[in-house]
Design a protein that fits this description.
Mean pLDDT: 93
CATH topology: Serine Threonine Protein Phosphatase 5, Tetratricopeptide repeat
Number of strands: 0
CATH architecture: Alpha Horseshoe
Distance between the termini: 61 Å
Strand content: under 5%
Number of helices: 5
Amino acid sequence: MDTATVADEARKSELILEANLLKAQGQYQDATDRFAEAARIEERLSEMLLQNKLLDKYFVHRFSALSCWAQAGNIYQAIAMGEEMLARPDLPGHLHQRIQEYVQLLRTRRVRWLVEFAPPAVPVAVSQ
């Protein structure tokens, strides 16, 4: 790994630790900001690993990106990444099941959000 990759790895780990600490302290906005930044780094790292055909590490970083997006509140992006991973024929079986379960949990939470918590749609007046 080159110096930039090592720095990205360290920064991503630092962000995830900070995000979890902030979440535990109830500082949710700051936590989600950190999770989103970590997710972007994980996506970059996973793409680099895919280009270098390091699939085991690619899947680990991609799943981490998925998890960070979910924790940042971007459930749609997380589910899309999970579905993308599940469609890959080279996804190892143990990860396939874990990702499938996680994506199903996210789908369930998305439905719950839409049914119980999402604000009602506000009609927009159309001028003629």
